[in-house]
Amino acid sequence: MIRYLSDAPLGRCCTFLTGGRAKRLAFAYNADELAEAADSGALVLGRGSNVLIGDCGYAGDAVINRTNERVFEGGVCVCDSGVLISSLAREYMERGLSGLEWAYGLPGTVGGATVGNAGAFGGCMADSVISAEVLAGGKIRTLSADECVFAYRSSGICGTVIRVTLKAESGNKDLIRAESENNLKTRRDKQPLGASAGSVFKAADGVPAGKLIEEAGLKGLTFGGAEISEKHANFIINRGGADSGDVLALVNVARAAVYDKFGIKLEREIKLYGDFF
Ligand SMILES: Cc1cc2nc3c(=O)[nH]c(=O)nc-3n(C[C@H](O)[C@H](O)[C@H](O)COP(=O)(O)OP(=O)(O)OC[C@H]3O[C@@H](n4cnc5c(N)ncnc54)[C@H](O)[C@@H]3O)c2cc1C
Predict the structure, then answer these.
(1) pLDDT, tens digit (0-9, with 9 covering 90-100), for 229-248
(2) Per-residue buried b or exposed e for 250-268, using 16+ beta carbons within 10 Å of the residue's own CB
(3) Which residues are catalytic?
């Protein structure tokens, strides 16, 4: 049986490093533990790299997905949803398998990336997913890629992703390595260091949200310990000592400023959980 810690610091398990405590928190190290926690209603998180947890905490159970099995055979990879997508991309690179070059250096788990159809550099999860085992209503169903209903930074998956089967086709090892490493370098060059959850907003009809926020004059704006990054305006960073309220204030300011200047309503990419007030 999975073991919970009471009154545990959920915010510390997320990449913003802000936010309060969960009523109970567990870590799932295998698919049975993950299914048990999810089935009893726990909030499932991977690396918490796309979420903001309220400062007043989460008044329920949460489970951090640390499942980590993967098997390569016959041109596919069957992997647990808790596998880190960047470590999988590295393994693809080392084995000369193509398809995850875009994901090298991407924080988060395969499960989180699948549910949100994470993507970068022209690639995304939808390009690789063959099927996903999803727990909902006490039953695990295998959804085909079509049934996952992938769209830009979203999917139609309702439930907990337990395992994912991904394409893993052999390619030119040198080219795969060069592309993966180039993508990692671009990430390092263009994205700020510091605690964040990546892009705060989705692109608006193809226009990068960062460009709109920058043109609204908000680069470098600070509130408490949080800052709209000087380097990339769609990133809010915790400069140290920020709380989730500081981050949320900047989210709201950015959305309002972009609406005032361009009449565009930015849609949040990061998900909010828990109580903020
Ligand atoms: C520095 C930085 C750079 C980033 N760059 C990119 C980028 O280039 N492209 C991009 O798309 N994203 C990017 N992100 C955002 C983030 O890394 C991805 O969205 C990632 O896929 C989230 O995975 P996670 O495991 O951390 O999900 P979490 O943040 O833990 O969860 C996100 C959501 O998915 C749900 N979820 C998580 N696991 C499961 C599961 N097994 N089953 C069902 N639901 C689940 C959670 O409940 C939550 O609603 C970046 C983040 C950071 C910090």
Answers:
(1) 999 999 999 999 999 999 99
(2) bbebbbebbeeeeeeebee
(3) 153, 199, 269
